[in-house]
Amino acid sequence: MTTSLPPDFADWLRLREPADADARSVELVDAVRDRLPADRPLVVHDLGSGTGSMARWLAPRLPGPQHWVLHERDRDLLALAGGGLTAADGAPVTVTTRGSDITRLTAADLADAHLVTASALLDMLTADEVDRVVTACAGHPTLVALSVSGRAEFTPADPLDADLTAAFNAHQRRTVDGRALLGPDAVDATVAAFGRHGVGVAVRSTPWRLGPERAALTAEWLAGWVEAAVEERPHLAGPAATYRKWRLAEAAAGRVEVVLHHADLLAG
User: Fold this and answer.
1) All residues at 6 or more sequence positions from 146 whose CB lies less than 8 Å from its CB, including other chains
2) Beta 93-98 vs 179-180: how paired, if at all?
3) DSSP secondary-structure letter at 227?
4) Which residues, 6+ apart, have CB-to-CB distance to 123 below 8 Å?
């Protein structure tokens, strides 16, 4: 996977981390906890780890001791993935970072894993890449959080919401450097890929809920959402400019609420 990340991507990850934490499925964590060994240190491989937000969220919800292996191709993001974690029972949590292209990992790379995790990842992959990731993960419980589902619900609603949503979803499915991204089709593709390995998958809805208390995140997300939609369908540029100005003003005033749908899945 060769797509480059913008230089301010770490700021975006930092801004969204509290909303991610609130949205992820605690029910699936409860389910996976019973599948983990209790007689040895827990080894968790986190794919596309970014700055380590999944470890910061999940490690305190699992018993220890734990060792996390963070796989991320962007070494600048890995440099921001610090330690200082403790398990649910106060046991120590250690962290190793690896500069990995997660689409090239094999089962051997994950051989010591008791659990594989990822967050906000699947929609940026192609069907072939999902197949390779699933093949690498299929022998282990795998918890994948916050894949976009292609639905955004606004309060108050506006007639342009549907057009922009459709355009954004088309942008998510675009082809980049010859890679046809799955976008909102990624969850279904991943469930099907695990199914081909005989692995069942539980899926839970895990929406972001953006209101006045998250006005900064709402504004940042909204600006990027409209920009991507217009990039995909330039004929929307005129009405989208008016829409964007209005929505951003309303968000700043705390008068917009957005439910942005995601899904978490647990395989194995």
Assistant:
1) 20, 23, 24, 119, 120, 206, 262, 263, 264
2) unpaired
3) H
4) 147, 148, 172, 181, 182, 183, 184, 186
Token readout for 117 is: 């995790």
What is the DSSP secondary-structure string of 186-218? Answer: HHHHHHHHHHHTT--EEEEE--EEE-GGGHHHH
Tally of CB atoms within 10 A around 164? 26
Residue-wise pLDDT tens digits, 8-37: 889 999 999 999 999 999 999 999 999 999
Structure tokens at 234: 């330039």
In the block, which residue shows the tokens 């929505």? 247
Q: At what angle do helices 237-252 and 160-172 cross, to 10 degrees?
A: 100
Distance CA 207, CA 147 (A): 10
Both tokens of 59, joined, read 């490690």
pTM passes above 0.90: yes
Q: How many residues does the chain have?
A: 268
Residue pair 47/116 in contact by the 8 Å Cβ criterion? yes
CA–CA distances in Å: residue 192 to residues 49, 182, 262: 24, 13, 18
Determine contact, residues 189/149, Cβ cutoff 8 Å. no
Alpha helices, H only, the chain:
9-23, 26-33, 53-58, 75-78, 127-137, 160-172, 186-196, 215-232, 237-252
Summarize the confidence of residues 159-183 as an average pLDDT.
97
